[in-house]
Design a protein that fits this description.
The protein has 365 residues and is α/β, with parallel strands linked by helices. It is built from 11 helices and 16 strands. Bound molecules: guanosine-5'-triphosphate and magnesium ion. Guanosine-5'-triphosphate binds at residues 17, 21-27, 47-50, 134, 190-191, 275, 306-309, 344-347.
């Protein structure tokens, strides 16, 4: 039975990064997971999404972060580039805590990186040329994608790998049928809009388009406007990966981590390392230009602001919206005309800013 293409009824939530990655898309996805029937992810294992489950930290590189909802189906979509070792390790690790094997589905058309492609990528020196990690972790994602585009005989798809057989399913059909049942599906974007192959500053980009529309296309879902919510995840301080990873936006000033620490008035030094390769990230002041450009192309219906604590460390991991944070959120809303609905003040704290605002109004009223 095919999906009833004419009746568009369910809801699609696309979680997209508005800057250069590491905006905290994983944690926003995890926050939303209780209301989601299906989580979808595509792209490669170069993006690590940090989430917490029962106090334990996980960095998800291939499986959708929605797995923390035991009732949700998990999709590795048609546009995925799979690193098999990473995927199998992740399946075992997660399955030991919360069974996922029966609800994880991999599209037979997804591509699988071969050891030869991985070696070939190392030889290109790409990691050195454009900075390591989100742009290239040397997993072979760029090479596998290039060979896919060239339609080389050496390409391997999920349907060709015996160990993946138990998970194979037509995930595009599944997702669209899920929507026809009026359910909510969530597409977990990887990396950030600024790293898009098409929209970013070439060559300091990743190997695919990372815009909201492209994310939906890569899992076979239409961006029909009546059913899409786009959550634009935005850091107070954008980062880029270590090394020669490209400029920040022109209205943004590159900072040191000691600057960030002082500005936030944090008693402890603030510093960030990449989730996958553990190198020190580059950091900058917020770029309104970059943010508005990301709004224009991705059309977020709401904004999730992360790293509120970098504006005022007294709010760190607290359900507290202090004056500097409130001022920043107001600035984003007035410049873009888009509501901020979620705010993060630490890796494990997400504030429903809509509810917070309503409470304040009720108190004042
Ligand atoms: P990529 O696709 O790799 O860009 O993933 P991502 O957007 O899910 O982000 P990632 O997990 O790589 O990086 C975000 C990091 O910031 C993680 O270590 C989170 O635990 C942490 N984090 C998320 N939100 C906040 C926040 O509000 N404050 C602080 N201090 N850390 C946060
Ligand atoms: Mg990451």
């Amino acid at each position: 039975m095919i999906a009833r293409c004419t009746e568009k009824r369910g809801r699609v939530t696309i979680v997209v990064g508005m800057q250069y990655g590491s905006e905290g898309k994983g944690s926003i996805t995890a926050y939303l997971s209780p209301v989601v029937s299906m989580g979808l992810r595509s792209g490669g294992a170069n993006a690590g999404h940090t989430i917490y489950f029962r106090g334990k930290k996980f960095v998800m590189r291939q499986i959708p972060s929605v797995w923390i909802n035991p009732n949700a189906q998990l999709i590795v979509g048609v546009g995925a580039i799979i690193s098999p070792d990473i995927l199998f390790k992740e399946i075992e690790e997660v399955n030991a805590l919360l069974p996922i094997k029966h609800r994880l589905f991999i599209d037979p058309r997804a591509h699988v990186i071969t050891p030869k492609q991985q070696i070939a990528e190392m030889r290109t020196g790409l990691a050195k040329r454009i900075g390591s990690t989100s742009a290239t972790t040397g997993e072979g994602i760029g090479t596998a994608t290039a060979e896919k585009i060239l339609r080389k005989a050496s390409c391997v798809q999920a349907k060709d790998v015996a160990e993946l057989k138990p998970y194979l399913a037509d995930t595009v059909m599944m997702a669209n049928q899920c929507l026809d049942r009026d359910e909510v599906v969530l597409i977990e974007g990887t990396q950030g809009f600024g790293l898009s192959l098409d929209h970013g500053r070439f060559p300091f980009v990743t190997s695919r388009d990372t815009s909201a529309t492209a994310l939906a296309a890569s899992v076979g879902i239409s961006t029909h406007e009546s059913w899409v919510d786009v959550i634009g995840v935005t850091r107070t301080h954008p980062i880029r990966v270590a090394g020669n990873s490209g400029d920040f936006d022109p209205d943004s000033l590159e900072l040191t981590w000691s600057d960030v620490t002082k500005r936030a008035a944090s008693p402890k030094p603030i510093i960030e390392h990449t989730s996958v390769t553990k190198k020190i990230r580059r950091v900058a002041t917020f770029s309104m230009q970059g943010f508005l450009n990301a709004c224009m192309v991705n059309r977020p219906t709401e904004i999730a602001v992360t790293f509120g604590d970098y504006l005022d460390w007294s709010a760190h991991e607290k359900e507290k919206v202090t004056h500097p944070i409130e001022k920043f959120l107001g600035l984003l809303e007035s410049a873009s005309g888009i509501r901020v609905t979620l705010l993060k003040t630490g890796p494990q704290t997400t504030i429903d800013f809509d509810a917070y605002r309503e409470n304040i109004f009720r108190k004042i009223g």
